[in-house]
């Protein structure tokens, strides 16, 4: 196994509730009487892409909303919150990252969120996870299609010169799992606080990361 590929921001640090709060604060800023509670938000996470999630929600309610503007506000709030909050890496992330690097494995972050969101998390985790040590970082600017499309993983594998069957992906949501599968990458589900109730089918779930376990 030459590569460990973290599939989203929340596989490194569980920021899902920060995301939900940022959406709700953005709705308020835009004069929308929407509030996503945890149960509703968990249901909405079956699809990827916050902007598309906002647009679909508005369409379902028969409302006209500038989804791009709302999502831009949400992203600003999310990034500001990350940089002002004590964000902790998830269980086993630091140890897995360090052990993988010590053993000569490639380590990547393969997401289709924005580069600004990735940078904000990198700042939040400074001193705990050094983003400069990633061998590849994929964000939405690097690919033309969002997850669940396979492109993000295919791009990452090409960048590090690894074959799909020799890598393992760590994903926290259904779209990410589908993306890894579509690229032929074996995947482990590491659900966050808002995807823990999702059905990942035949994909093995873990509550903490351990490199020896992933290598098996």
Kindly, what is the distance between the CA atoms of the first and last residues, rounded to a whole number of angstroms?
9 Å
For the record, the count of structural domains works out to 2
Low-pLDDT runs:
none
Order of helices and strands: EHHHHHHEHEHEHEH
- What is the strand content? 5-15%
Give the helix proportion (percent range): 40-55%
Strand order of the largest sheet: 3-2-1-4-5
In round numbers, the mean pLDDT is: 95
The dominant shape is: globular
Give the full name of the CATH homologous superfamily of the largest domain: HAD superfamily/HAD-like
CATH topology of the largest domain: Rossmann fold
Individual helix count: 10
The CATH architecture classification of the largest domain is: 3-Layer(aba) Sandwich
Would you report the number of β strands?
5
Radius of gyration: 17 Å
Main sheet overview:
5 strands, parallel
Structural class: alpha/beta
CATH class of the largest domain: Alpha Beta
Topology:
Blueprint: E1 3-6, H1 9-12, H2 16-29, H3 38-44, H4 50-60, H5 67-83, H6 93-102, E2 106-110, H7 115-124, E3 136-138, H8 151-160, E4 167-171, H9 174-182, E5 187-189, H10 211-215
Parallel strand pairs: 1-2, 1-4, 2-3, 4-5
Helix pairs in contact: 2-5, 4-5, 5-7
Describe the 3D structure.
- The mean pLDDT is 95.
- Helices cover 45% and strands 9% of the residues.
- The protein is of the alpha/beta class.
- Helix 4 packs across helix 5 (67-83) and helix 5 runs parallel beside helix 7 (115-124).
- The protein has 2 domains: 3-14 and 89-215, 3-Layer(aba) Sandwich (Rossmann fold), CATH 3.40.50.1000; 16-83, Putative phosphatase, domain 2 (DNA polymerase, domain 1).
- It is globular.
């Amino acid at each position: 196994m030459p590569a460990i590929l973290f599939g989203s921001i929340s596989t490194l640090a569980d920021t899902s509730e920060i995301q939900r709060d940022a959406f709700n604060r953005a709705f308020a800023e835009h004069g929308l009487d929407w509030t996503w509670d945890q149960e509703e938000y968990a249901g909405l996470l079956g699809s990827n892409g916050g902007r598309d999630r906002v647009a679909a929600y508005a369409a379902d309610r028969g409302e006209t909303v500038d989804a791009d503007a709302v999502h831009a506000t949400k992203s600003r709030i999310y990034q500001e919150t990350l940089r002002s909050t004590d964000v902790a890496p998830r269980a086993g992330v630091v140890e897995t990252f360090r052990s993988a690097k010590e053993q000569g494995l490639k380590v990547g972050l393969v997401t289709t969120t924005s580069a600004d969101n990735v940078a904000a998390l990198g700042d939040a985790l400074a001193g705990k996870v050094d983003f400069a040590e990633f061998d590849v970082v994929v964000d939405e600017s690097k690919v033309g299609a969002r997850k669940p499309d396979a492109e993000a993983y295919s791009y990452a594998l090409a960048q590090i010169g690894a074959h799909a069957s020799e890598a393992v992906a760590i994903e926290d949501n259904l779209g990410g799992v589908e993306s890894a599968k579509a690229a032929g990458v074996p995947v482990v589900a590491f659900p966050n606080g808002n995807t823990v109730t999702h059905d990942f089918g035949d994909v093995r779930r873990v509550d903490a990361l351990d490199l020896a376990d992933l290598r098996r």
